[in-house]
Amino acid sequence: MAVFGQWVTSTASAPDNLLSVRVLHEMDATLVRDSGDPLRPALALACETWDVFVASVKAGSLAPFTVPVAIQRHRDGVTLIWNIHDPEGPVLAISAPEWAAFLTGVSRGEFDRDVAAASAGGREPSVA
């Protein structure tokens, strides 16, 4: 389940989570990163951008011009994703198993912002 201020992975990810896509919801953005490359900056997406991306995945449509996230699949199975509103921002390179697990988690609602908001009581959690 998604929680504000906490990195989460899909339940479909490998049990060790060493190679997985991680998502963190903040009050004004959603951050996405590849756990296999922790030194690379996270991809930051505005709340509305994330919501459109999630709705597109759930509808089974990741067609260009319908998704505010650029997605490029390569023959070797790697999927590149980046924020089209931030062309100078980070590009994530995600392996085929990571991408499949991530899309499964998105389809199941594991990364929905409304679930995260409900778990945080609609407010940002305090930091201890």
Mean pLDDT: 80
Order of helices and strands: EEEHEEEHH
Helical run tally: 3
Across the major sheet, the strand order is 1-2-3
Query: Class by helix and strand content?
Result: alpha+beta
How far the N terminus sits from the C terminus, by CA atoms, comes to 21 Å
Strand content: 15-25%
Shape: globular
Radius of gyration: 14 Å
Query: Quaternary status of these chains?
Result: single chain
Please, how many domains?
1
- What are the low-pLDDT stretches, counting only 5+ consecutive residues below 50? 120-128
Helix percent band: 10-25%
Descriptive report:
Residues 6-58 form the DUF397 domain. This is DUF397 domain-containing protein. It is a single chain. The protein has 128 residues and is of the alpha+beta class. It has one domain (21-119). Helices cover 24% and strands 22% of the residues. It has helices at residues 47-58, 96-107, 113-119; strands at residues 21-25, 29-34, 43-46, 69-73, 79-83, 92-94. Strands 1-2-3 form a 3-stranded antiparallel beta sheet. A 3-stranded antiparallel beta sheet has the order 4-5-6. The longest helix has 12 residues, at 47-58. It is globular, with a radius of gyration of 14 Å.
